[in-house]
Amino acid sequence: MTDLDLSSAHARLRASNPLIQCITNTVVQQFSANVLLAVGASPAMLDHDADAAQFAHLAGGLLINFGTATNQQFLAADAAIEAVTADAKPWVLDPVSIGAADFRTTRIRRAAAAGPTAIRGNASEIAALAGAGAGGRGVESTDEVDAVLPAAADLARATGAIVAVSGARDAVVAHIDGVDHVARIDGGHAFMPLVIGTGCSLGAVTTAYLAAVPPAGTSSQAGPAGVGALERFTAVVAAHAHFAVAGEAAATGALGPGRYAMNFLDALFTTDDDRIARSRVAVTAA
Amino acid sequence: MTDLDLSSAHARLRASNPLIQCITNTVVQQFSANVLLAVGASPAMLDHDADAAQFAHLAGGLLINFGTATNQQFLAADAAIEAVTADAKPWVLDPVSIGAADFRTTRIRRAAAAGPTAIRGNASEIAALAGAGAGGRGVESTDEVDAVLPAAADLARATGAIVAVSGARDAVVAHIDGVDHVARIDGGHAFMPLVIGTGCSLGAVTTAYLAAVPPAGTSSQAGPAGVGALERFTAVVAAHAHFAVAGEAAATGALGPGRYAMNFLDALFTTDDDRIARSRVAVTAA
Amino acid sequence: MTDLDLSSAHARLRASNPLIQCITNTVVQQFSANVLLAVGASPAMLDHDADAAQFAHLAGGLLINFGTATNQQFLAADAAIEAVTADAKPWVLDPVSIGAADFRTTRIRRAAAAGPTAIRGNASEIAALAGAGAGGRGVESTDEVDAVLPAAADLARATGAIVAVSGARDAVVAHIDGVDHVARIDGGHAFMPLVIGTGCSLGAVTTAYLAAVPPAGTSSQAGPAGVGALERFTAVVAAHAHFAVAGEAAATGALGPGRYAMNFLDALFTTDDDRIARSRVAVTAA
After folding, report:
1. ipTM of the shown complex
2. Which residues bind ATP (chains A, B, C) (predicted)?
3. Which residues of C touch B263 (CB under 8 A)?
4. pTM: predicted TM-score of the whole model, two decimal places
5. CATH assignment of A6-285, given 3.60.10.10, 3.30.70.1530, 3.30.420.10, 3.40.1190.20?
């Protein structure tokens, strides 16, 4: 339980059906699209440099993931990031494959410096991006979430982004009005990392929750500058809570990752506001 | 029920196991391949400009879908379309993402002008291609099928293509010997648009049904020129009836889109001639 | 039953969790990644020419499959093959789509000449690569495994590679110390070829089993030069036995390829050393 209003974050996502542009790796495109549909968002995977920016102006949010990036995708990402930045719309960077090779590490660092609303990765990826680790080997995590928390907080301060670390117990870190907010989310299942795309699609869903946050000044909670930041933090935590809840429910009847993946899509779909509100989330601010 | 011989169209597809070349978006390649295999066709996704045309000469039909098109795919499509046109083999255009951005809209219109045997899209895509709407936002439909029927008929007359509009109640429109033929197909399920690729793979299956139509002059119904056109119309309707039937059956036991997607592949596979013949199809000619 | 120690090959794979780089076609990337995860390996699909070689130095093995190859992938493959060859690490060539068109056939032959540890394809693909057949039409096989065995043995002798032929009854052929070793593996199910990627992902799993073979000189069976070759032959046979066993088990409760595909991932995951040891494998050496 938490004081964050995760239930409303979920309700807003379902109500707004945001269009999410994903410039993402081809391994997880199908799964990410199905995940977005299951949570009530609309996926669009346009990634051509000739029109990615034009499309980004239509989208509600943008996900960048360079796991199998092509030159076309690198150029499309540059243009789309510019477009959503100009529109003050949220975008999320998934640093998957950082540290694996110099070329893509350079491009990922460049994207991180462009001001993402949120950065979501596993522990080794976040450590690598923060300069505190060697990076991952593909989509796997070798570091632990707890160990990487200080690096995640540094990264949040340095970039202004909300930083989310996926693992057995997820963490979401944000630096708001000089205070470090840390949410820890329990849930999921050991089968989750055996289904390709569960991490990458969480980046897509994080984008969808952020896209459903009301624009500044329109919120019912309008007030000091930090309110928008807190709503974005809540959105990122809600995305992780949604996955944690569905990831736990998906284990029912699953003997392995095949059935689990199917159940997971169904659980994402059937999870409602009330269930999200009862997710196991602990928040500290210091 | 209908006078169209959908049962024979299905039997011919199963008997001929046509090789279908798909130059299609990477989000739906896997699902489209599995769908083609489930209905008895053989998929091939070769999309390199260096050999797409050579391969097209081997294929029984060609699907073009520019959802995540690369320059390689645009060039491959140009060449493959030329090849199947020279061979008088069927090809289908799925205008997904038309209207989303100028660059790809231009390429989609160019393909539409190259004489596709059929065009299959959702209502907003067909409206956009016919010049009567703003286009879709990704794979979603925002217009209704009924509203777009006049535009679909215009498009069929203008291009000579059979035009299929997917929605809660699909429509297939063809202009044959000066008469507008319209088939309406009932079936499917609300989960269907929550599974990525159900629309795009219907384009692939439409191609497969068309590839199974006997070449002109070899038909048992040989006769006036309109016979070939009527058989192609029947093939497109049969593809949609097959999806409608399987889409309805797939809901059994499904709590969400995960289980539904699995059931759908099984239902496509188990649907037989007799079940296709009993699909809910209404045809008018005026 | 066989004298080959398939059980230990499987145990080593589970214990070593090898990182497998796949430069493979986009149709099967997701399925192949899920299959690798299910058997205990870690997939990475990096395929950019700028860093594929650098990443290959980190990987335990490399799979090359040009089914939907782009120019980027062709260049990445050249570089990655050089890297793993320099490191004396295993790599596997899947000649899917050979014979379909001249351009890719040329590139596949070039890769075959670069000294793969193993070559895995269906009967028509192996026949085409050996110069004894016309090649496949996509991912399908039109020749039979038995008929292609002599060509497979020729290919093994000519290239030094272990040659695996997939079909109703798989064959693995290796020329070791002047003797042709042939293993025949029974299992699988008629639904298997109706699931896209079951062949292509077997290439990935073959790479994973090979990556788990202890380096020369460290084996408990250290001895004559042929020992390493025999362990690699055992690894390739074990990969096929794993698929045969899981492919058979996956049929339980499956009415079609949808449920079968899900079951197959679960069966790959739950198959243990003991079950692999009891697979139906017959080996001859002559």
Report:
1. 0.94
2. 120, 166
3. 258-259
4. 0.95
5. 3.40.1190.20
